[in-house]
Amino acid sequence: MIANAQTWLDRPVAMGRRLGIWTSENGRLGSVRVLRGFADAEELARERHRELHHPDPFGAASSACTFESESYAGFPFLPAVEPGVFGKYYEFRTYWLKPGGLTPTIEAWEAAMPERSKRSPLTLNMYALDGAPRITHIWPWNSLDERIAIRAKSYADGIWPPKGGPEQFYEATSTIWIPTVDSPLR
Asked: Where's the NIPSNAP domain (predicted)?
């Protein structure tokens, strides 16, 4: 599936800036996750239209698998994602928000991130533009032991989770992904 995704993204008609490609380490195994940035909502809509109307998007039909697309916008106070080598593992955490929970969540994160980012870098936090209200954030890690230690220390020191943040969600998932060799984020 990685080769199929690469082929799809390498086509001249493909839109968006490729930011990361990962394979699943847990959760739904054999999955590939792609992160792209788009210049604006129109470019995103054109690419989504191409995916939905193509007979074999990402080579999913010919490889007997599925594909899902989700649209997000980055939290407004965070810098844009820049490619680079940041970790061997990437954690994707998704929180499904209670109605009205997005603005308080963004405010909580904005207050907490200056101190939290001293412990480990955040790749991105973003909120969904489609589907159920939710946020997804991406953290790079050199090891899973590093992840556990930093998260435990952040909790113990009271700087994480963001004050008021957990009250806004009702469900959460966390999955670990490994960057592919050609992923701009590694």
From this structure: 90-184
Q: Are residues 98 and 67 in the same domain?
A: no
Largest Cα span, the chain: 52
Taking only the tens place, the pLDDT of each residue in 76-116 is 999 999 999 999 999 999 999 999 999 999 999 999 999 99
Q: Are 21 and 5 in contact (CB under 8 A)?
A: yes
CA angle 151, 157, 162 (to 5 degrees): 70
26 touches 178 (CB < 8 A) = no
Place of tokens 């790079």: 140
Domain encompassing residue 46: 2-71
What single string gives the DSSP state of each residue in 72-86?
A: EEE-TTSPPP--B--
Same domain, yes or no, for 169 and 137?
yes
Q: How many residues would you count in the chain?
A: 186
Residue 27 pLDDT > 90, yes or no?
A: no
How far does the chain reach from its first CA to its final CA, in angstroms?
A: 19
